């Protein structure tokens, strides 16, 4: 086993494919595949599963990746100490549902990092993709919510993929609506009140189901419904089409444009928002800093943190 082979494994996971990794490493794909196969034979484990859809980490591979990253970190420390080489870039990758507070914390984390070089990634994406990306160690942290409706299904999937859910805070449901909406002056809105207005929700793809929806409740029937994939679009539709969506109620600078308001929704349902991690992985310092900033941002918005 060599450090070069460990670097190959880490780069393949970061790129998500053998082909992209070979280009990034300036190594031919056959040579890269051969090196990985030699390592698998030496260790007696399968690190990647290979299919027509590409490659994915096995359970053994996910565990091996954790150790490989630790070894590479130690090797870089040696080089930094004795060769005066630059330290490795600060790295952190987060996958999240479409929460503004998650982005706000990410900004604060980057501002607090004292490093000349870093490479950070935040993905606002579908619920199933969040789970898969943390399971495959493409992201260190995933942010999503559990409710009475989805907790059994999501919880089972997390256990199967060796992921741990860490509660952050519990939020009563709110709706985002335009300040010009006739409902904006109400102190409490019902689903019946919302019937005339377009319901906007985040699209979850062909494999999505009610259990993966980002909205904890939805109308039994909505004659006007719009599916979107990004947060900027949903905010524009709320303003331009007088639509609404269901959310935690946490807002930030994006909403301080006097065009959108949050109003409590008349519902007994709540959202238990938290983060997921891979039980086989050790968080980087940057990821730990992000969690600290995440807790701080949530507390600053007036929500009680769950120990």
Describe the structure.
The chain is an alpha/beta fold and 307 residues long. It has three domains: 3-84, Orthogonal Bundle (Arc Repressor Mutant, subunit A), CATH 1.10.10; 90-169 and 273-294, Periplasmic binding protein-like II (D-Maltodextrin-Binding Protein, domain 2); 172-264, D-Maltodextrin-Binding Protein, domain 2. 39% of the residues lie in helices and 22% in strands. It has nine helices and twelve strands. The strands form four sheets. A five-stranded mixed β-sheet has the order 4-3-5-12-6, with helices on both faces. A three-stranded antiparallel β-sheet has the order 10-7-11. A two-stranded antiparallel ribbon has the order 1-2. Strand 3, helix 5 (100-112) and strand 4 (118-124) form a beta-alpha-beta unit. The model has no long low-confidence stretch (mean pLDDT 88).
List keywords for this structure.
single chain; alpha/beta; Arc Repressor Mutant, subunit A; D-Maltodextrin-Binding Protein, domain 2; 3 domains; 3-stranded antiparallel β-sheet; 9 helices; LysR-type transcriptional regulator; DNA-binding transcription factor activity
Side by side, the strands of the main sheet go 4-3-5-12-6
Question: What is the CATH third-level topology name of the largest domain?
Answer: D-Maltodextrin-Binding Protein, domain 2
**CATH architecture heading of the largest domain:** 3-Layer(aba) Sandwich
Mean pLDDT equals: 88
The rounded Rg comes to 22 Å
Written as H for each helix and E for each strand, in order along the chain, the element string is HHHEEHEHEHEHEEEEHEEEH
DSSP helix fraction: 25-40%
Instruction: Count the beta strands.
Output: 12
Q: DSSP helix count? A: 9
